[in-house]
Amino acid sequence: MKSIVYGKVYFVGAGPGNPELLTIKAARILAKAEVVITDRLVSEAIIKDFVNPEAIIIPVGKQGRSNASTPQSEINDLLIQFAATYKSVVRLKGGDVSLYSNVLDELITVKEHNIEYEIIPGITALSGASAYTGVPLTARGYATGVRVLTYYKDSAISKETWEHLAAFEDTLVLYMTGNALPQLVNNLLKAGADMAIPFLVIEQATTPNQYVHEFDLGTFNSQLHQELISPSLVIMGKVTALYKQFAWLPNNKERKQYFKPLQDYPELISLINNTQQLSHVSRA
User: Fold this and answer.
1) pTM of this prediction?
2) Is 264 annotated as catalytic?
């Protein structure tokens, strides 16, 4: 029996939402893809306008508090199954491949199976939100650098680290933190942060549905009156005081979801089963 000859897997960053922020290389790879395994936070316009119309589209992804989230182990299995049957498989991720995605698990998977791969970077939500709010993250006189973080209720952060963050010498950019904002703000204040420090929460950055909330640490708990729409990015620090001066994109007051919530896709089961049956076939 011949050994399996695998195709190539492309890990592609789709950008923060606006389809015009897709890179030229990503568009070229998508145009020739046979299979696209795509996250939730990828614009439908990218799938419609840039993906090979004959490609198989496999919607996967994660969403907090959703039972429809695809387990990482299943995504890993999909990469192997489809690479065993097709020459060009794209793993399409929102933002950039390297920031707050599970690409490490997927890289380990393809390496273990000796599957050829390539990584194509994308514009991340960090730079997208900065540009689309007019807030320069490292503006001279406002910040010496940027700290890119995520925060959950059970995050293990030392007292010394909290004190460093609370000094706000750097701009803090936080992914996947909207639900834990009250705890985050309280911890920064306990660590000595200035109550006047401003911050922004940007919903669905760069999309037509972008909406920016303005807060400050001292009055945040009395200012937040509505649930935040996912994905939301938090930018904290002195630079956010520049938002009013340089904002160029008006808020979408309707606050509608741009990215569809995850759904179950039972029609994919037969497709995946068929692919498993074909995966032993060598293309050599």
Assistant:
1) 0.88
2) no
